[in-house]
Amino acid sequence: MPIPQRSRILVVGGGLGGVAAALTAARLGVPVVISEETNWLGGQLTAQAVPSDEHPWIESAHISRTYSELRRRIRDYYRRNYPLTAAARGIPALNPGLGNVSKLCIEPAVAVAVIDEMLAGYRSAGLITVAYRHVPVAVDVEGDLVRGVTLRETRTGEETHVTADIVVDATELGDLLELAGVEHVVGAESADETGERFAAEVADWRDQQAVTWCFPLEYRPGEEHVIDRPASYDHWRTHVDPFWPGPQLSWFKIDIHSNSGRENRIFEADMDAPHGADLWHFRRIRARSQFDPARITTDISLVNWPNTDYWEAPLVGPGVGESERETGLRRARELSLSYLHWMQTEAPRHDGGTGYPGLMLRPDLTDTSDGLAKQVYIRESRRIAAQFTILEHHVAVVDRPEGAGAHLFDDGVGVGHYNIDLHPSAAGVNYVNLECYPFQIPLRALVPVRVRNLLPAAKNIGTTHLTNGCYRLHPVEWSIGEAVGALAATCVESRTEPHAITASDERIRDLQRVLHETLGAPVRWPDEIRRTRPSQAAGATPLYPLPGERRGATP
C-alpha cells in the first residue's frame, strides 16, 4: 500500500512505543502512518531481540489493558502453534523460555506475529498504514511547528514526504529531535543541573549507556558450529578497561551490588532447571522441558550479557557523524561475534574442558543472515527538553521518605516500574543501580518546552540520564506510547495542541479519563503498590542501590 503523503498523525519509529501510539490513536478513530526502519515492528522486543524486562505486578490487573493483551496473545500463539507439553499448555502464566529475567521469555518472531495480529483490523480499515524499511532523513519545520517528515526507503532510496498534524518521534535514538532542531539533552547531566544525588559531578555527553548486539543461541552438545574468528577478536581478548575486571572475552563481569568482579559462567545449573544463576538461564527463550521431546530437544538462550556490552564509543552526540556511528555499530557486532567465538573455542568449561563448539547461531529466529538481531539494543537516546523532567528523587527508594512511595503526579498518564539501571559508558563510568518505587509517567514529561506538535514516544522523553535507566524498559515504553497516542488523537480531534492540554487541569483530567476509562490504561498505582519496595514484593528479583558511591565510579 502506498504511503499517504498526508496523515492526521505520523509516528516515526516502530518500536513498542511507536506501536502503542499508533494502536491507541487508531482505537480512538484517528488515522495514523507509522514508519519502521526494518521489516519487523516491536523494537527492543523483536528487532533488537531483548526478552521483556518486567516488574512484579506485570500479571496483575494494574497494567495497561493492551500490554496485557499483547502478553496474553503471545501465550495463545505458543499454545496454537508450538508443540508444548500438556503440563506447559495448561499453565495460565506460560513462560516458554523459563528465563530468569521475565515471566515471559519468548522468541522474537512470535512477538512480531502477535503485534501484526493486533494491528491487522486497523490496517484493513485504513486506520493504520505501516511503512516498513523507511528512515527519516529530513524534517520540515516552520517556527515552532513540524510540518512534515521526509522518509527514505532503505533499499531503493525512494523518498516520500509526509505531512501531519501531530508528529511522534518513536525512533530508538530520538532522530527527529536532531533533524527538527528540537531542544534536547545527550548523555549525563551534572548534579548542579538536576540536584540528583547520584548525578555526575560534571555533565558529559559521552556518558551514555552501552549498546549491545544481541543474538539467540541453541546448544547442541557433540556438534560443531564454530563461527569464523572476527577481525577484532584479539582486541576484545586482550584489552582491559580500567573499570572492568579483565578482558571482555571472559566469564568475569562486574557485580552491581559490590562493584567488584565476579565469575558468571554460561553453564552451572541443570539446563532443565526452572531457574539457575548461570548465564544460560538468565534470558533463556526456549526451555526444552516445556515442549514435546519428540519435536524439541534443545534449549535456546538469548545473549544480552554484561560482557557483550559495547561501551567504546557513543552512537550520538557532538562530533558523532554517520561514519563514526557506522564504526561503532560495526565494532558492537564484532564484539558480540567475538564473544561467541571465544565461548565456542577458548572458554573454560563447567566440566574442566575448553570451549563449547555446539553453541549454534539461529539466524532463522532473527530473520538475518548472520544470526545477530536486526538492530543493536539501544538503552539510551537523545531526550527532549520537556515541560517537566523526571528526577532521581521522584522515584528512587534511597531518596524518598520511608514508605512514601514514588512522587504522585497530578498529571499522571501511565504507570511503570524498573530500577534505575545504568550500564557502563564511553565516559569510563561503571554500573549504577538504584531501587525504585513503582512510578507514574507525568504528561508534562512528554511535551517539549517549545515545539508545539512533536511528541516523544520511546526513550526520548523528559528524563535525566539517571531516570532514563528506569523508564526505558518494555512495559514502560508501551505505556509512554499509549499516553502519547491518546494525547495526539485528543489534539487532532479537538483541533488543539499538546501545550493547550497541559495548560488546563480540566483537559488533563479529560485525557486521564480517556486513558483509564476508555482505553483501560491506568494512570496511577494503587497506594498499596506505589508505597511497596519492589525488592519486598512477591515474585520480585531485586536489584539494590550502591549506597555511598557516586554512579558506580571507577576506582
Structure description:
This protein has 555 residues and is α+β, with helices and mostly antiparallel strands. The chain is built from 16 helices and 21 strands. Strands 1, 2, 3, 4, 5, 6 and 21 form a seven-stranded mixed β-sheet that branches. A four-stranded antiparallel β-sheet has the order 12-13-9-15. Helix 1 packs parallel to helix 4, helix 1 (16-27) packs parallel to helix 13 (474-494) and helix 2 crosses helix 4 (108-124). The longest helix is centred in the middle third of the chain and has 24 residues, at 322-345. It is globular, with a radius of gyration of 22 Å. The termini are far apart. Mean pLDDT is 94; it is low at 540-555.
In short:
This protein is α+β, with helices and mostly antiparallel strands and 555 residues long. Helices cover 27% and strands 17% of the residues.
Structural class: alpha+beta
First-last Cα distance: 57 Å
Q: Give the amount of beta strand, in percent.
A: 15-25%
Fraction of helical residues: 25-40%
Oligomerization status of the protein chains? single chain
Number of contiguous helices:
16
Tell me, rounded to a whole number, the average pLDDT: 94
Total number of β-strand segments? 21
**Envelope shape:** globular
pLDDT < 50 stretches:
540-555
The main pleated sheet reads as: 7 strands, mixed
Alpha-carbon Rg, integer? 22 Å
